[in-house]
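ok new one. same drill as before - structure tokens go in, u give me an amino acid for every spot. 536 of them this time. try not to just spam alanines like last time pls lmao
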């Protein structure tokens, strides 16, 4: 069994770590009820250790009505009974750590569930009460208050952000009505979240992922967007709810909490402005933030190189490591996306029935894995990517994602990348989302015995990344290459070459071929959509 090669007490482990994202509900079912759980994760810890990851990021495992896949939290100090208990979570954290695997939990500070005690108390207390000051309650517009107080659009397309309650007031929710936004100008909201951070750090977690990290703070006037400039926003023209300057005070206070425990943060920060983005990565704020420009980039050599260069350049001034990710629980799976005519990702472009070539997509996903794992910084791997899973076509009557329903049925939603993992050819018993009939071919137990499988490729790549010790930290230096080919050197001269051109590429002189995503054409020619790692 492999274990993380990162030193046990290395305070900078996060700078080069490979972090595996666990969507608990779909990872592994320990009790056979069709829903993934902590018992299932604990049983698969040897698999994760053999894979060679350094940390596990768990999407929310807290008590939740699951109106938005657990991102509607009712109690941060209680594990949802569908997943297990707090005692099981503590055992999982300890057992993973014994294998050299750290734990990262997910915090959703913009909002809570409508079942959260605070919100239930606010509804009961009525207009003007202190309980309602923890949220954004407002009277409606119009003669009878029957119109919403504002015009902000939902983060889920095709829907509004205000819901009226029986006493006539309205409350703000940037996501679903089941996710009321918190008022981050209220000191009790800040105190509670700092207490939640301490609660989990004291239970041994190594880090916290922050959901929708740029949305917390709101302009107190909650002004309409109509008639305001489209952006960029800054200074007196700050956006009323995205990337407001007062947010940085929140994260500085959080950083002080994390520093007490040696904990780290990774923020979900979707911002097009590079300078604004890097403000979150200053030494007294977040340690890292997700790199969505790379995730959304098409399979195009020029654009991928630009995404890498831009990412490294924007992180350099603040000394923060880059993060690299190809897919997550919100995004179309890599195999499917790379098999389409449009290989980029855009939420607005998602549609039913988009054609894909799974053979082409798999070949490109294999090459992309080696590209990503050779870049400087940390890497996030979403569960099932190491199995080469495609996006699943979930039957209409089984879709659960609110993104689908809030779009009026136009958006297929995110359930296709959340279907339970195939551990064996035998499907889960009554899974909460149906597994495609042909997924037995992707089963982990079958791939373990196949040296040419996606799982074997990931295991080999992670073992080399750990052993070489040169793919995570250090500079990246581009080497001369023809159009459509990416070639770069890392410390100790290790070289990664990726051929996106239609013609085979003659590899540079080398002493050893460490690994290739697919067989070479002859002894040293790299076929199209293939990557290789070389030792000079």
């Amino acid at each position: 069994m492999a274990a993380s090669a990162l030193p046990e007490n290395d305070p900078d482990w996060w700078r080069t770590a490979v972090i595996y994202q666990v969507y608990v509900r779909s990872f592994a079912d320990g009790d056979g009820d069709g829903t993934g759980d902590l018992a299932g994760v604990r049983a698969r810890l040897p698999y994760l250790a053999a894979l060679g990851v350094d940390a596990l990021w768990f999407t929310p495992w807290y008590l939740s009505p699951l109106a938005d896949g657990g991102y509607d939290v009712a109690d941060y100090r209680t594990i949802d009974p569908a997943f297990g208990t707090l005692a099981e979570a503590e055992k999982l954290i300890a057992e993973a750590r014994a294998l050299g695997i750290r734990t990262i939990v997910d915090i959703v500070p913009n909002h809570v569930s409508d079942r959260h005690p605070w919100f239930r108390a606010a509804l009961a207390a009525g207009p003007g009460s202190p309980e309602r000051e923890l949220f954004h309650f407002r009277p409606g517009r119009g003669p009878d208050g029957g119109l919403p107080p504002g015009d902000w659009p939902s983060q889920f397309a095709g829907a509004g952000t205000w819901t009226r309650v029986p006493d006539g007031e309205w409350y703000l929710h940037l996501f679903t009505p089941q996710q009321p936004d918190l008022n981050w100008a209220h000191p009790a909201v800040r105190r509670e979240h700092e207490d939640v951070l301490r609660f989990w750090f004291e239970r041994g977690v190594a880090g916290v992922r922050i959901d929708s990290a740029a949305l917390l703070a709101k302009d107190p006037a909650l002004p309409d967007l109509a008639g305001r400039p489209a952006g960029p926003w800054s200074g007196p023209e700050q956006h009323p709810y995205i990337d407001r300057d007062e947010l940085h005070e929140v994260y500085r206070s959080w950083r002080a909490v994390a520093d007490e425990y040696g904990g780290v943060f990774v923020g979900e920060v979707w911002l097009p402005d590079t300078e604004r983005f890097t403000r979150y990565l200053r030494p007294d704020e977040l340690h890292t933030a997700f790199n969505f420009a790379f995730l959304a980039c098409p399979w195009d050599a020029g654009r991928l190189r630009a995404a890498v260069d831009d990412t490294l350049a924007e992180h350099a001034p603040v000394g923060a490591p880059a993060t690299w990710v190809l897919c997550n629980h919100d995004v179309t799976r890599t195999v499917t996306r790379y098999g389409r005519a449009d290989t980029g990702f855009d939420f607005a472009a998602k549609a039913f029935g988009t054609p894909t070539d799974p053979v082409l997509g798999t070949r490109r996903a294999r090459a992309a894995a080696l590209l990503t794992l050779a870049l400087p910084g940390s890497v996030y791997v979403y569960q099932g990517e190491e199995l080469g899973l495609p996006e699943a076509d979930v039957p209409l009557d089984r879709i659960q994602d609110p993104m689908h329903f809030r779009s009026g049925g136009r958006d297929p939603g995110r359930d296709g990348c959340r279907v339970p993992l195939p551990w064996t050819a035998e499907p889960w018993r009554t899974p909460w989302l149906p597994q495609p009939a042909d997924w037995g071919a992707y089963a982990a137990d079958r791939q373990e015995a196949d040296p040419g499988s996606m799982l074997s490729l990931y295991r080999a790549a992670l073992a080399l990344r750990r052993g070489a010790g040169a793919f995570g930290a250090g500079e990246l230096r581009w080497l001369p290459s023809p159009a459509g080919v990416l070639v770069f050197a890392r410390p100790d001269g290790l070289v990664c070459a990726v051929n996106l051109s239609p013609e085979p590429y003659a590899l540079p002189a080398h002493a050893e071929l460490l690994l290739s995503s697919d067989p070479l054409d002859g002894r040293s020619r790299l076929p199209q959509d293939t990557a290789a790692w070389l030792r000079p």
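The first strand starts at residue 18 and ends at 22. and btw The mean pLDDT is 94.
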